[in-house]
Amino acid sequence: MRTQVGIVGAGPAGLLLSHLLDLQGIESVVLESRSRSYVEARVRAGVLEHGTVELLRETGLGDRLVREGLRHEGVELRFDGRGHRIDFAELTGGRSITVYGQQEVVKDLVAARVAAGGAVLFEVSEVAVHDLDGDRPSISYVDAAGNAQTLECDVIAGCDGFHGICRPSVPAGALSMLERVYPFAWLGILAETPPSSHELIYTNSDRGFALHSMRSPQVTRNYLQVPPDTRLDDWPDDRIWTELQTRMELADGGFTLAAGPLIEKSVTAMRSFVVEPMQYGRLFLAGDSAHIVPPTGAKGLNLAVADVRALSRALGTFYSTGSTEGLDAYSETCLRRVWRVQHFSGWMTSMLHRFPDDDRFSGGIQRSQLRYTVSSRAAATTLAENYVGLPFD
Ligand code: RFL
Ligand code: PHB
Fold first, then answer.
1. pTM of the predicted model, to two decimals?
2. What values do phi and psi take at 102, rounded to 5?
3. Cα 44 to ligand 2 centroid, rounded to whole Å
4. pLDDT tens digits, 278-292
5. Is the CB of 345 inside a 6 Å radius of any atom of ligand 2?
6. Residue 202 annotated in active site
7. Tell me: the pLDDT tens digits for 315-339?
8. Among 99, 200, 351, 386, which residue has the most ligand 2 atoms within 8 Å of its CB, making it the best to mutate?
9. Which domains does the chain have, with CATH numbers?
10. Atom 6 of ligand 2 has which residue's CA nearest to it?
11. 319 in active site
């Protein structure tokens, strides 16, 4: 089999890349190890930047997003028992974010690819990439029926997430891996109960970070900072609700978190990770295969979107003019945004979490940073403009 762009991974990065290429008349095949129902049900991110929403709408993926997505013009930072609103619309000239589950984005993307007759092959196995440094790379795999196959292509997009095979296939020494691991994790829950606030609440408390988020007017999403070795068995539902309520308590007693039946519960490790450069020969890494940010800035999915936007444009130039200029600059273009987002996500993380080795000095700096962020228009604008997303390159 032969195609123009071979894409490994049907997460948001791989599926959106395939869609953006199709709009330019470029062929691709997406290879995914999981089933369609599995990728459509995987609960992850929930916050879409202003520019992500615009891109999805402009490329015909906005119908359900506009109908069901929840547009938010601010968030609350809560500390010392008080809440402070950061007004995005006012600070960024009317920009906003939209709360719409990642699995909904994935469902919309799969539906669009299927409707356009796109090739998305689920449940493939033994995926391996070959001849990355020539101009005829290929991907070998075993299809869902158990037959060994080879896909020849011009370019391979490694959109297979942090644990994928593309990044490790690059010869040792060609890429640098830069990493920071945090001494805590997030316990996340999805619950069948209406949100207790109509905007997200990021809370710094003496007992650790807590986040109140949502998916719809009927479903809430909450997170708790927990030790990295946390076992879900130690967290029965009652303990989770009590801990969330305690951390998010207001000094005047004016906040009650509505509890309800849990639909999902998981623990996620937190890390910052960047690979440099994001390309090797004819292999281009995009999304979580190239970088991970701690979720406190709500950026992972949005960064994946920015990468594939850049890659689809570079490939558009390559196929229409033969010039590799855009492709050659791919990594540099993406890494500028990646490092900005690494800074923002690391800053939000350090401002809002309790560090185990916390001393009174760093605690004093953290409080000062919080107070400054909610009282200085300049500092609040820094948070707001990064949170709604800086313009694409
Ligand atoms: P994905 O989504 O991991 O998709 C990779 C796909 O590749 C497949 N795959 C393979 N396929 C074939 N062969 C192989 N050998 C393969 N190995 C892997 C996988 O099955 C999968 O389908 O990566 P992608 O597309 O780069 O997308 C990145 C996002 O998923 C990720 O950055 C976000 O979920 C991060 N994130 C958040 N991002 C935001 O923008 N806003 C948020 O509010 C936000 N909250 C979060 C998050 C991530 C979280 N977790 C669970 C990590 C909250 C959490 C709790
Ligand atoms: C979510 O709703 O899942 C969510 C929201 C904000 C974050 C991370 C996750 O920073």
1. 0.97
2. -55, -40
3. 8
4. 999 999 999 999 999
5. no
6. yes
7. 999 999 999 999 999 999 999 999 9
8. 200
9. 5-72+95-179+271-348 (3.50.50.60), 182-270+356-388 (3.30.9.10)
10. 298
11. no
